[in-house]
Write a structure and sequence with these properties.
It is a single chain. The protein is mainly α. The chain folds into two domains: 64 residues; 43 residues. Helix content is 64%, strand content 0%. It contains four helices and no strands. The longest helix is centred in the N-terminal third of the chain and has 25 residues. The model has no long low-confidence stretch (mean pLDDT 91).
Length: 134
């Protein structure tokens, strides 16, 4: 996790530095500067979280200088091979974006409900009776 912490902290320094340079060349235009500074702030939040987590877990192979490629081998987790729920989540998120773009409150409400249903379907896919482990 230290690698990710360094990556996001470096991104934050770059964004804040870019905001200063952008401000100097644009007569301190507020909208672009606010976007860059806030993006830098969000990057420092993520980098701080990764740094905080990296202090509490054992070093991963990515964080060790003496690690071999084989040290990272093994099971990474369970990924559902045949799930159709991500397609529904993407379609519902697209509907939410469409509702936001045109500011259709009725579409936002319907799309958000469909989004919550599909996220719940993905979350509880292996807890249902048909897919439950025996």
């Amino acid at each position: 996790m230290k690698l990710e912490a360094y990556l996001f902290s470096g991104l934050a320094v770059f964004l804040v530095g870019t905001a200063v340079i952008y401000g100097a060349f644009s007569d301190w235009e507020p909208v672009g500067m606010a976007g860059l500074v806030l993006s830098g702030g969000l990057s420092i939040i993520v980098g701080g979280f990764f740094w905080f987590v990296s202090r509490r877990i054992d070093p991963r192979p990515e964080d060790r200088k003496d690690a071999d490629i084989a040290d990272g081998a093994g099971e990474l987790g369970f990924f559902s091979p045949g799930s159709y729920w991500p397609i529904g989540i993407a379609a519902a998120a697209g509907l939410v974006a469409l509702g936001l773009a045109f500011f259709y409150i009725w579409l936002l409400l319907i799309a958000f409900a469909v989004l919550m249903f599909t996220v719940g379907g993905l979350l509880f896919e292996y807890y249902s009776r048909a897919n439950a482990a025996h």
